[in-house]
Amino acid sequence: MRSLLVLFASAASAKVMDKLASVPKGWSEVRQASPDESVTLRVGLQQQHAAALEQAVIEISTPGHPNYGLHMSRDQVKAYTAPTEKSVSSVVGWLAESGVTSSVNNDWITFTTDVKTANDLLDANFSWYQYQQGGSPKLRTLSYSVPDELSASIDLIQPTTRFGQLGAKRSTIFEMQVLEPEEEDAVKATVAVDAADCNPNRITPACLKSLYNINYKASPEGNLVAFSSYLEEYARYSDLQSFETQYLAEASGQNFSVELVNGGLNDQSSRDDSGEANLDVQYVLAISAPVPILEYSTGGRGPLVPTHDQPGPSTNEPYLEFLTYLLDQPDSALPQTISTSYGEEEQSVPADYALKVCNMFMQLGARGVSVLFSSGDSGPGDSCIRESDQAPYFQPTFPAGCPYVTAVGATYNISPEQGVSFSSGGFSSLHAQPAWQKDAVNAYLESIGSTYSPYFNASNRGIPDVAAQGSRFVVVDKGRTALLSGTSASSPLFAGVVALLNAARKSQNQPPLGFLNPWLYNNSAALIDITSGYGSGCSGNSAFRNGARWNATAGWDPVTGLGTPDFPKLLAAAAPGVENA
User: For a FRET experiment, which of 34, 196, 351, 547 has its CA 20 to 30 Å from that of 505?
Assistant: First the structure.
C-alpha cells in the first residue's frame, strides 16, 4: 500500500514540461520501445545570471558605451551561464537515485540510460515512430515531466517530444543552375575580358569588389573567418582551386582548413550535394582573401516540429551540438566572424530549443564573434499557415529571428540594386523587438500602417538586418561552373566584408566588432539604402489572392534590412584611418 501511495504522490507532484496532443502529422507509431533499449538525453539547466549576461552583451556591443569592445573570456561567460550549485546537485542526485550516471558541462547535463528508467524518470512513454515517407525510426515520447521541485532548474530535455528525421538539405540556396559546356566557356571568356564589369546574369568576385568598392587587403596574421557546413555537405579543395584559377587569380593557392564537430566528416569524394559548401568557401574567400578560412563540418540533425512546408523528414541543423562545441573552445581558437547559410521556419523549431540556441549565439557575441545567417528564400513565407490554429500568418525564419545573429537578405541587379523576390524577411514570433532596432523598424511600420497587420507581430524583432547581392553567383561545383542564387550567397559575401573590418580593427590593436547589430544600426549611413524591389511569397494561400509581398523602401525594410555594404564608409566607421587599399 505504501509504494502505491508514494507512486501517486510522485505523479501528483510532477510538472509536465511538454505534451503533444497526438502523434504529429505524417508520423505513426511503429512499436513500443523495449525496456532495455538505450537512450541518451541532454538536460538544459536554467542559467543563474542570464539577464545580467544579456545586459552585459548589449553594453559590450553598443558604440559609445564605456564597456564597448570589452569582450569576455570563455570562463567569464561560463560564470554568467552557470546554473546554481543546488540545481546541478539536485538534478544529478535525482538521476543518481535511479542509478543513472551523468556528465555535467556548465548548464548542460548529459546522461545515457535504458528506456524503462527514462520512462520512470520522466513519466514518459518512449516508442519508436516512423515518418510515412521514409527514413529511420525515431525514439520519442509524446510527453515528459520532471519532479515539481526540479522544474525551476530545468529549461528543457532533448530529444523527447521533438520529432525529426533525416532528409533533404535545408540550406537557403534558392536556385542552382549547372551550365552547359558552351555556356561555361562563354562565362569564362566574358570574365577574361572585363571581370569587374557587373553583369546581373553572372556575378563574379571582381564584380562584387567593384560594386561595393572593396580594395582593402587584410593581413592574414591573427585573423580567422569561418563558415558552417551541415547535412553532409563538404566544401571541395579541388573546386576551390579551380575557382581561384578561373575567377580569383589574386587568391591563387589559398586553401581552407576543416574542423570536425559531432561526427561531421570531410568527404572530398562524396556524391552528395556540395553546392552550398562550395558557395560559402568561394565567396568568403572572394571578399576576405587572404584572411584564413575555417570550415566547421557538423554531423547530426536537430529536432523538427512538422509543418506544412517542412512536414519531415527533419532537415533542421544540429545547432546545439555545434554551439556547445564552439563555446567550449579556448578564446584563441575562435574565429572573429562566422557565416551560416542554413535555416528553416521559426515555427518548425521547438520554442524552448530556439530560445536556448539564441542564448548560445549571444554567448558567442559576448566573446567577440560576429555571427551572420542567411535570412531565407521565401519572402514573407511559403504556405503562410500558422500551425497552432491553421490561420493565415507570415513565416519568420530561424535562426535569423534570433536578435543575436545578423540576418542577411538578398539583392539583385546593379543600376539600381534592388531587393530580390525570394529574400526572406518579416517579424519573429518568438523574440521581442530589441532597443537598438526600434527607431529603424518603427519608421517602416509607420509607413505601411495596417497593411498585413493580422499576419505578423509588429512588436517583435524585424528581419533581416542587412543585405547583399544574392542572385546568379558563379561557383565551381564538382568541376563544373554553376550559377547559384539565394541568401546563401549573401551571407558569406557579407561575412567576408565583416572579416575585413575585423582585420582592419586588429591592425589598429582594436578588438573585433563582435555582436554586430547595435553597431550596424548605429552606422546605417555606411550602408547603401535599397529602395526598390520586393520579397514575395504566400502564393498558395487563399487568404492572399495574389500572394503577399514586402517592399524595399527608404530606410529599414523586411527585404533588405538597412541595405548593402558601402565598404569605404564601413571601413571608416570600424577602423578610422585605415586606407581602403
Answer: 196
